Amino acid sequence: MRVPVVQHSSRRRLARRRRVWWAGGEVLVTVGLVLLLLVVHQLWWTNREARRGAERKVEALEREWGGGGAGNRTGDGDDSATSVPSTPARPSDGIGSPDTPDTPDTRDTRTGQQAVTARQSRPTWSQAYAVLSIPRLGLRVPVAEGVSKQNVLNKGYVGHYRGTGQPGQAGNFALAGHRNTHGEPFRYLNRLRAKDVVEVETRSATYTYAVDRTLPQTSARDSGVVRPIPRSVVKPRYGYSEPGYYITLTTCTPEYTSKYRLVVWGKLVSVRPR
Q1: What would the pLDDT profile of 87-128 be if each residue is shown by its tens digit?
Q2: Choosing from 160, 178, 179, 227, which is the catalytic residue?
Q3: Please, what are the domains in the chain?
Q4: CB within 8 A of 56, min separation 6: which ones?
């Protein structure tokens, strides 16, 4: 009977292989845990912190303005609400903030209808100065000037595109918000339907818009959607051809990517002074 002989060199090689495999397994487990923590941070922690910060800012704005939110004053038969024509008498000059009440003091001599014009000054860069409410989405978040990720969007705020109109102005009040992470205020923007209510509350008034049209997907560089008369330059059949009082809401699509943009448009239907 032959007895197998195991050489010491073979044992050493097997031991080295085991150590290599063990070390490799530990590295893979460590990398997996780090990636998991990163995912948790992005998908949970950033949302938690941004939402808390946004809620605190909304509360601070309401205290500063000295009253409850826009939702507390919404209702049918509000005699203080002023209706707005679909076509303005003339475009409002300049870009500004809603520090001064907007009053329907411009009359279209051709139609006899009233139009709202805004006499406003520029808001401070990255400063929250309004509150956006979308009842269908259960959303109520601050609106800040600019669309900087670090100073605005990553705080859970909605950002105002610099150079577009302000609430209540003739033209286009254009906003951007995250769809995923950092509060993701526009996570469910695709759920909005025609006639859904979008409200923008400022120090001086509450502006109510009604959702009118949706552009499901366009290029991230489609600048036409935020022009004073919004119309996609990528898909020209989407948009408008006449001046009006518009709001534009933009976010990334599909979810968890930033390749394309989803766009929702609305029209101003009423103004309620505070």
Answers
A1: 564 333 332 333 223 333 333 323 333 334 444 567 888 899
A2: 178
A3: 48-273 (2.40.260.10)
A4: none
